[in-house]
């Protein structure tokens, strides 16, 4: 496969993840996660969720809960590292933005997600490159 086709397939997998999220499709969400125990998820404001069963339970709670957010993926950028793909994108939930990292592995079924993390971010149209506070 060419790098352009790999990148397009990776972005399609990421888009499908957000389609499952926005459509509250628990079955599709489950099919997108790699069938390995070492998957992880860092939902905003949650402690780390580790292990496939726990991650899928967390998504079930989010997607079927009364406060399941409307979400839109914006400005997705994909990077390939062999059989690992990393997508960084903005998530728009109402007037707020999160910045997300989604890590995928290549499998016989295409790209499957092994890690999702999102956290607060400035509006993607803001030209600020300075963080709000220093970490070091």
In short:
The protein has 136 residues and is an alpha+beta fold. The chain is built from three helices and six strands; from the N terminus they run ααββαββββ. The protein is globular, with a radius of gyration of 15 Å.
Based on the model shown, name its key terms.
136 residues; alpha+beta; 6-stranded mixed beta sheet
According to DSSP, the number of beta strands is 6
List SSEs in N-to-C order. HHEEHEEEE
Quaternary status? single chain
Describe the sheet with the most strands: 6 strands, mixed
Mean pLDDT over the full residue set: 90
What count of helical segments does DSSP give? 3
Strand order of the largest sheet: 2-1-6-5-4-3
Please identify the structural class as seen in this structure.
alpha+beta
Poorly predicted spans: none
Approximate helicity band: 25-40%
Which radius of gyration do the C-alpha atoms yield?
Answer: 15 Å
Overall, the morphology is globular
What amount of the residues lies in strands?
A: 35-45%
Terminal Cα span: 42 Å
Topology record:
Elements: H1 3-22, H2 26-32, E1 40-42, E2 49-50, H3 52-64, E3 72-81, E4 84-93, E5 96-107, E6 110-120
Parallel strand pairs: 1-6
Antiparallel strand pairs: 1-2, 3-4, 4-5, 5-6
Helix pairs in contact: 1-2
Description of the structure:
The chain is of the alpha+beta class and 136 residues long. The protein is built from 3 helices and 6 strands, in the order ααββαββββ. It has a 6-stranded mixed sheet with strand order 2-1-6-5-4-3. α1 (3-22) runs antiparallel to α2. The longest helix has 20 residues, at 3-22. The chain is globular and about 40 Å long. The mean pLDDT is 90.
């Amino acid at each position: 496969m060419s790098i352009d086709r790999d990148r397009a397939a990776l972005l399609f997998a990421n888009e499908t993840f957000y389609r499952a999220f926005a459509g509250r499709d628990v079955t599709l969400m489950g099919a997108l996660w790699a069938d390995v125990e070492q998957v992880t998820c860092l939902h905003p404001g949650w402690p780390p969720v580790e292990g496939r069963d726990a991650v899928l339970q967390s998504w079930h709670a989010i997607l079927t809960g009364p406060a399941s957010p409307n979400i839109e993926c914006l400005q997705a950028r994909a990077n390939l590292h062999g059989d690992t793909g990393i997508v960084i994108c903005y998530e728009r939930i109402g007037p707020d933005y999160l910045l997300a990292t989604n890590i995928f592995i290549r499998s016989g079924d295409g790209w499957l997600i092994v890690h999702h993390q999102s956290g607060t971010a400035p509006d993607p149209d803001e030209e600020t490159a300075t963080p709000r506070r220093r970490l070091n």
